[in-house]
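Example 3.2
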Amino acid sequence: MITSNIPFILVLLLLAATFIQSGYDKTMYWQDNLSWLKGHFSKTPIKNIVPASLFIILVLELISGILCLAGILQLIMNNQRTFGFYGAVMSCITLILLLVGQRMAKEYEGAKTIVIYFIPAIIACYWLS
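Structure, written as tokens:
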């Protein structure tokens, strides 16, 4: 049973590691991230709401990562995919918001990088649905 779930587990592990590490980084280095992002978004429509935007992204990243971890446990324990599916969906939503931010800031290379993470996230949505 677990061997048939290995691809799902690996993709969820990738997403969980990505978002939990990113959430940890934002939490531990909040001021550094905030200072950098204020400059990054200084010429965009969200320049006045960078702290709130950063907080929203932090919460979404943590929810995504935790749901992916819960999905891994659920797959291992009872072969169900509910939490993994919701983790993959939340990951896609989070990545889309990050992509929109990068596009607003005209940071096209950063936007391309986000697409690299989006591909396995959308595949996970399909697999786990």
